[in-house]
Design goal:
With 319 residues, the chain is α+β, with helices and mostly antiparallel strands. It has ten helices and eight strands.
């Protein structure tokens, strides 16, 4: 006996039920001359057609069972199907969804000639969005590509509500990427990739929920700039680095001059410190194995000779 589906509890049948009601209302609006008795006659005719279809379906299901019994055990090879752990089977009986939703994983039973099923892979898929030429909010043309990770969350809805859920999701990912990048400035695209990826993931997930698709992650791979813009940005960055280098060099010179002034004050307080500095310099030069060693003349010796000369000149002047 054919399983019955309650339109009030089944979501897809609910859509069909509401559609039929809206079509009936539209027919009534297109035919204003229909009386109340005519409407009653139309409803009764529709009920009769549904009853005939239900009766015909029961007869076909009965004949299918008879065929299975008569051709056993060979019919079991056709009736029993197996789906993997990561797959689900959506079964249609005489064009209608079988009550109970998708089947699997494991083994399930179908009736020959009247049942058709579709396999749905629940594993996460990766879609490499091709590079998209986008005009940013500040009128800069960039080429952006991304990666989208998604999976089927509801096998029944992905088969019944959309013709090709994967193709639709990929086209929507391309459109969402272009729309999102078109509302951002260039510096935001280059520096806020994580924020943009999160907003794209939320937008895609909300749009594909009616298709039974769950968008798990969106990542922006690369942002390609025009060659002229790359050169301009490189020149700007080089000028900024040179300016920072000059400032750092000036600060270093200022700190070095202050350190030399402090060192000169220390050496002036202790004359022996200058001699120790001479010896340290000689030690550094000799460590490099140079053939020529420059030995500085101590300033104290020159001071002694200068004082002797002054005394000699003073004695001669008095005489």
């Amino acid at each position: 006996m054919a399983p019955t589906i309650n339109p009030a509890t089944h979501p897809i049948k609910m859509l069909q039920f509401n559609t039929n009601n809206s079509n009936s209302r539209a027919s009534s609006m297109r035919r204003p001359d229909t009386t109340a008795s005519g409407s009653s006659m139309y409803t009764a005719a529709e009920d009769d057609s549904n009853g005939e279809a239900s009766t015909c379906g029961r007869i076909l299901i009965f004949l299918s069972w008879v065929l299975v019994v008569l051709t056993m055990p060979f019919s079991l090879l056709v009736c029993f199907k197996v789906v993997q752990e990561y797959e689900r089977a959506v079964i249609f009986r005489l064009g209608r969804l079988v009550h109970g939703g998708a089947k699997g994983p494991g083994i399930f039973f179908i009736l020959p000639c009247i049942d058709a099923y579709a396999r749905v892979d629940l594993r996460t898929r990766t879609y490499d969005v091709p590079p998209q030429e986008v005009l940013t909010k500040d009128s800069v043309t960039v080429s952006v590509d991304a990666v989208v990770y998604y999976r089927v969350s509801n096998a029944t809805v992905s088969i019944a509500n959309v013709e090709n859920a994967h193709h639709s999701t990929r086209l929507l990912a391309q459109t969402t990427l272009r729309n999102t990048m078109g509302t951002r400035h260039l510096h935001e695209i280059l520096s806020e990739r994580m924020t943009i990826s999160g907003s794209m993931q939320l937008s895609l997930d909300e749009a594909t929920e009616a298709w039974g698709i769950k968008v798990e992650r969106v990542e922006i791979k690369d942002v390609r700039l025009p060659v002229q813009l790359q050169r301009a940005m490189a020149a700007e960055a080089e000028a900024a680095r040179e300016a920072r280098a000059k400032v750092i060099a000036a600060e270093g010179e200022q700190k070095a001059s202050r350190a030399l002034r402090e060192a000169s004050e220390v050496i002036g307080d202790s004359p022996a410190a200058l001699q120790l500095r001479y010896l340290q310099t000689l030690n550094t030069i000799s460590a490099e194995k140079n053939s020529t060693i420059v030995f500085p003349l101590p300033i104290d010796i020159l001071t002694y000779f200068m004082k002797s000369k002054e005394c000699y000149e003073a004695s001669h002047s008095h005489s």
